Batch of 2 targets.
Target 1
Amino acid sequence: MTDRQGARRALAWLVTAALLVVSTQGLAADPRKVVRDVFPVAETGFDPAAIHDLYSAGIIRAIFETLYTYDYLARPAKLVPQLAAGMPDVSADGKVYTIKLSKGVYFQPDPAFGGKKRELTAEDVVYSMKRLADPKVRSPYAFLVEGKFVGLDAAIDAAKKSGKFDYDRKIPGLEVVDRYTVRFRMTDTDYNLPYVLAHEALGVLAREVVDKYAESDGRVQSNPVGTGPYKLGQWVRSNKIVLDANPDYRGFVWDYAPQQPGDDKLVEKMKGKKMPQVGRVEVYIMVEDQTRWLAFQSGELDLMNMEGPLAPNAIGADGKLKPDLAAKGVRLDRFIDPEIRYMYWNWLDPRVGGAGKPQIALRRALAMSYDAAEEARVVLNGQAVEANFPIPPGVVGHVPDWKSTIKYDPATANALLDKFGYKRGADGWRTWPDGTPMSIKYAARPDTQNRQLEELVKKSYDAIGVRMESQRDLFPELLKLERQCKLFSREAAWIADYPDGDNFMQLFYGPNSYQSNNACATIPEYDALYKKTTRMPPGPERDRLYQEMARILEAYAPHRLTVMRYRNELIQPRIEGYRKHPILPSQWQYIDVAASNN
Amino acid sequence: MNDITLKPSVAVRREIPHTVSPGLWTLAWRRLRNDGVAMVSLAIVAAFVLLMILSGVGLVAKNWSREIGVNYAPPTFLGPDAAPAAPEPAAKSQEPAAESGGTPGSAFNSTVVDPLADVMKEIEAQKAAPAGESKSVDPLADVMKDIEASKSTATSAEQRRATLPFGADKWGRDVIAKTIKGSETSIFVGIAAAIVATFIGTVLGAVAGYYGRWVDDTLNWFYAVFSSIPYLLLILAVAAVLQHKGTMTIVLILGLTGWTGVFRLIRAEYLKHKGREYVQAADAIGASNRRRMFKHIFPNVSHVVLVQLSILVVAFIKSEVILSFLGFGVPVDVVSWGSMLNEAQNELLLGKWWQLVAAGGTMALLVTAFSLFTDALRDALDPKLKGNN
Amino acid sequence: MWAYVVRRLWQMIPTMLGVVLLVFILFNLFGGDPAYVLAGKISNPEQIENIRRQLGVDQPYYVQLGIFLKQIVTADFGSSWSTNEKVSQILATRLGPSLTVLVPLLILETLVSLGLALAVAYVRGSLSDRMVMIICTVGLSISILVYIIVFQYVFAYKLGWFPVQGWGDSFLENLVHYASLPILIGLVVAIAPNLRLYRTFILDEINQDYVRTARAKGVGENRIMWVHVLRNASIPMITHVMAQLPGLLIGAFLLERFFSIPGIGREVILAVERSDFPVIKALTVYVAVATMLVNLMADLMYKAVDPRVQLK
């Protein structure tokens, strides 16, 4: 090698080194820090307005930002500003919200912006909300904005007539006051608006991006362009999603106060760090339980939610991590998910539904025949607890030691049925009071866990002499019948959209039949109380009303609360700062990877 | 010449020693008898069939669904689990108090009026009646007794056995009883479905291969259309049409969707044989098409049919396992090897292997015996195919 | 012969029509309504109608059927109802992984089964013959589900010889690293029944008269096996291999599920679960075309191998 060549080489090295130093200066995220996570179901797409499942929502949470989000460690969940500069300014009557935005928030660079840096403004916020209401986009979360903002419904109607939503039309309820201020005018007092503003469906996106990339259905599922800490990297559909740290993200400093036992160490490690630290997130789709579990054990995954069937492998009967895993340094984050499950009976069916005494008695008897504790213990392998109150823990309005009047009591159930004339026929099965043979149809999806549930229901009904008839069908069919109020009986589930009790109590509100009220039950006393609660701020008064409503539900038994499941998040030792949040669907921007274990 | 036949016994018929040559099946049986493996297999299959009949009439394994063991009770030769699966402690206080004050649930005085209030009070009063009360007073006496009786067998944990001869499943049901009952279901499904499928496939295949031309085209059209639909969609469709969701549904699902392989093979065989000399010879002596098809060609093809039948029996017993995996197996009050293996899938990783081994092993035994016997039967039926030349 | 080929190609049209009709009827009657699943947690009947309109399922049946036929002719089935990904793209991207597993599997399985069948036929009646057949029989009596579960646990997890799951970016990496365990399992599952069947075919031929004649004429045993017997036994063998082809794609879904391979089999299950008609339509049409072409090829090969066969 000649001197000239040698010098040139050295120069090249020097320049490269210098560039490296300079380029990584602005980036807190280290691309060598990789976190491997897993989804048990395939994703659908990454358009905030088109969110369909919890897992796609997780990706959206990493790429987009909302006005508000949740404090990482605070329990119960507490809102903190994300795109907003502070908490909202609320008028005295609770109907007008004024919110100022942070300045200097930029979208990730994209050809749609024509090569220029694009700052996020109030216009974008309002635009994103209008999109949710656009009939063409048919957002599954349109209900978050419909009927709530002054003038929005009129715009929706106009869109239905003309076939196109006019995004330039000014809507009084969604006002752009100035470049960094929005003002919301509600049609009625609404204390839940800040929660709604923290939902992933309200992730803010730019109009140019939608104009450029929208597909035939008006959605932008494949080109997410947000302001958040990550951007979409490699994407192999239904198989692998890679998120790379967004170099143009403004970043934030990790600063949260400890809340639960074990948080102190976490805070010590993470406080003051500039986030995000993780430069690359690889999400794998693994459908089978065994695959996920083996992959975690062999170190191919860093994070995993341990679902029911295999949970006893990792978690002992006492709810603690098994010693062999603990010895490897694996951690367990375990809490009850803000979700309830309940078994309902069709209120509109003349023989089983309604407020007539014989029908109430039948439903109460069916409810009392069912041992929810056994469902938790056997069907869900101990990874659940009996649900007694309609609002789960972690959600405002929950009552921890509530004693429901509906208990597992087959003796009383039998007595009740006898008293109301459901006599046993010659074959041992009970009949309707008029003597005709009786059977209760129960619908279940065809998978393993639901089959076990079906077995349990059959056992329970057998013990009180009621014949159960199985109705097995594909999920879309069951859903359709349910929405048409034609499904007889099923165990349904509801997970919190936001941590307020209203999100749960609305499930049993009469006018929500054909939508979220699966039993299609209308109980006047309940409905009257519910309407009152929507106008009250959270507090002891509202709680009292919720408890009255719970007793009403127990008395009329349109359904039977069954279980609430545990969430068991397993964490490899190399992951630092991980504390699973009950509401946030993903949290890769809040964690770090221990440097030595790369 | 006048025919001798019309005049009875005119001529003395010479007695020619007349040996009846043994028929095909007698010969086959003789050969089978000499085959050791075949006889053992036959014995095993016969035993299973006997078990199936006994189970079907309810002489054995009648109470397979009774939960007589604790959940996941291990086999007796392993000994009971060290610590019984303790029920989950009630929701611990590690979940934060989320509510903002308010009266605790236990002491909550509701103003809600229970529409059944008076009835419930009556029932409570009756339940509180002292045990010594004369039975005639208590209208619920016999019902209560039944409840108590079923409670003691079903729910009291102390009375449930800690181990069973080959363990218990998730609910505490005896694995041996389930296996026996499961054999009945699975074998029945396998044989019945195989017969349906083989019959359809053979008849259609013979007709298509033999007649050729437009008959072949039509049947091929039918076959092509049928075999192009994704198996899953086909299963759904057949399941939806046959509303009754019982074991017969599975038989029909498998039978009506599984004939395509047989069709294809038999058609190929008939195509092949049609061009053979002996068929042309039969044509020369004036045998009709149907005669040629079934009397002449079929015996040369029957061993293929038989082998296909045995393969299908095996295939369908295994398909039932996959159907159960997809959720279209037997209903919840019926047990089969498929439903057992489906349950066992997750149990294995928990270290509970007994249901997997019981169902899998029994299935393996039957299928092996069945297949070996059918091989031997085939060898015995056709001397030209005898293994040892 | 060309007349025959042309005639068969013509016949594909009524078959395709039959398939179209059958799939259309099946799906519309029994396939489930996707609108409710796509609608989300809370939806009113108006929103459902909106969705159905967008999907095009609110149109009368004959209109929908007409659209279906047009789609087949233009080979454009639109986009998935749940992810809006173009169907052609779905198929193009998923076909690769499926074939990476299935083609080596098919080749290996045929060669190994054939080789073993010939070897076993050679020593027919001996103890080794019996032993191999018994092992085969035991092997095929175990469900593929059991094989997958146990193999994945033992060879991938416990012994670490293969990855537990996954799929990479490069073809070579996929073939050698990720596909090897699935292929191995597929091989073990397929050899047993194939071996038995091929043995039957070969023994069939060996006991025919022409073989005896050939032996009497002094032809060597090897030549008899490799040239004469094999040629005749190959007809049913070809039938068997060909018949397996179109079904393989979808049949491999179990392997794809457990090993997280982004293939067609898994896609079909996903589409059926979600009532995603465009994907199901496209797959059915392509499988149908493949089946028909494969059948045609099989018949042509009969003629090539056995001149006595008359193609009518």
Note: Residues 15-26 of chain A have pLDDT under 50 and may be disordered.
Target 2
Amino acid sequence: MSDILLPLLVTIPIMLAAFPLLAGLKYERAGWPIAMVGSLVVAGLAALLTWEVYLEGQSTGEQIIHELGGFPAPRGIELVGDGLSALIALLIGVVSVAVLVYARKSGPQGNAFYSGYLLLTGGLLGVAFTGDLFNLFVFLEIVGLVTYALIAADRSGKAAYGALKYLFLGTVGASLYLIGVGYAFVATGTLNMLDLQSALAEVGYTDPLVQAAFGFILVGFMLKIALFPLHTWQPDAYTYAPDSVSAYISALVSTTAAYALIRISFDVFTVDFFAANPLIADGVVLLASISIVVGSLLAVMQTEIKRIFAYSSVAQFGMIVAAIGLTSETALFGAVIHLVGHGLMKAALFMGAGIMATAYGARTISQYGGLAKRAPFTSGSIAITGLALVGIPPSIGFVGKWFIALGAVQEGSWGLAVVIFVSTMLTLLYVARIIEKLYFDPPGDPHGAAHDDHGDGHDDAVDGHAVADGGHAGDDGGLTTDTQTDGGSPAETPIKPGDSPEQTAAVSGAVSREMLAVVLTLTLATVALFVSADQFAAMLDPVFGRFFQ
Amino acid sequence: MTEPLITELFTEQHAYVLFVLLSSIGIYMMIATQNLVKKIIGLNMFQTGVFLFFVTTAYVVGGSSPVIPPDGSGGPFASPLPHVIVLTAIVVGVSLTAVGLALTIRLYNEYGTLRADALREVIGDE
């Protein structure tokens, strides 16, 4: 019965994706409600699936399998749901609802955006559930294609540049993955993940063809996940994309790619493969460690807020991939928690940065001087989520990092433990810089003033901003004014970079109460999930039981 | 010892050699040229190399096309699965090219150039 949830989760958003464009022929603003319905349905079904898998995990621990079109498995394509994919699906559902609430005001407007948004959601869910290597390629490319289009959705030249750069590297990554799949197919004659597991074992894990297959798949995913030195597309893509798109893709796109790598490493190649090829396992840990350190260092060196967060993703995903190479149950447990936690934290951070940019035109660290007084809620969110990213308890960031580091120590991989520690210090460095600017720099400080000429006309709009953030005194009056601004939303124009000062000033109203509420909710979630390790364990135990039998 | 291997490589497995050549030339072209359209052509060539590899794996010596008569006779047949895979992958490749060209057109309209190095200079990418 519950297996019908899997195809529904994948097909509903993809089919709904046609409707914003169709309805857009008649109703100009039909896109958002349709996308919202789609995202809510996805979130609801994902929650239902998670609950069923949770119950299943208590009793039998079996996977939920759906054969598409009734064609039986090695030839037909299967959708597979277990604790791991259900968690990722739930993350996709929650983040897509959250970002959509945020995107209603912040844009990009237009029905094409909402079509792309639903298509991306469907593609991500496909990656999460598919049980077939080639089908995974198709879903990865659906995700890739829509991501390139969404990054360029605000029609600015810079965004198109970032998107095209991502397109080149992302396509090469997917093609390298396809070569790896081809090698595995030549070695075994099957593409079904569960089937491949036994077929690869028969061929032998030290067979050069199998090793090469894993090598190509690994490099392909390293490009998609954006690990150093293959990360170069990511900072541009995240920085130049519209704020809501940055939040969505930073939270989900690399995350599902990392999930797919975990799935293939442990469900297809299995721990025995790593045991038979210690050099490959060590290589993965080494590459990931370099990514952790270099990503953190590059993040410290940046001045643009979105770029800092982008490079920080390079480091965080380094930790997740390092846990794969460790093949330790504890570390992998931490990696999955960090995968979910990082998604929530980055969504909150990018949306927080988006509010700062829309309301105050602040896009660099120096422009953040003293903003905490004007935007207490947003600043608080950025500060708390930033500290969660460092790994300070109580937050989900701490839980994930803790288990990865614990796994590294258990496996005797002291190098990695030191790397994680160093990266934590570096993360603290760049987060502390932001917090220090927000809270301890007076608004009129020389740096802030020096940068004022870049953000012409923001001074005129200060009053509006403070109201927009709902908190110059944190009182109801601010919120009421805000609601009025909200009511006037049809007059809103999409925000384009390079607008004249007058327009930029008008943009201040574009920060709505629900945008703030979303950021605050996600922030609270990252803190509240600190106590969730037991629930994660209940979800993941049956899965890991299979991985590490 | 190595001589027969090399002969075999070029007589019986020339398709694999072609796959490696095509993919390498494509990826080199993508990296080396500064022209965005040529970069996209290089990307296509790289993908075509990969498709060729898949088509090659389907080949069965003496095999006919996998259209099986109702009585199930005939054979051997070439494997249909890689063909289906390549068909799908070609569709994906076409859409990628379309998106890539659309972005290139927008970049050209915005900055008036197709050269990646010029764009990098204008945009200030590090």
Note: Residues 278 and 344 of chain A are 33 Å apart (CA to CA).
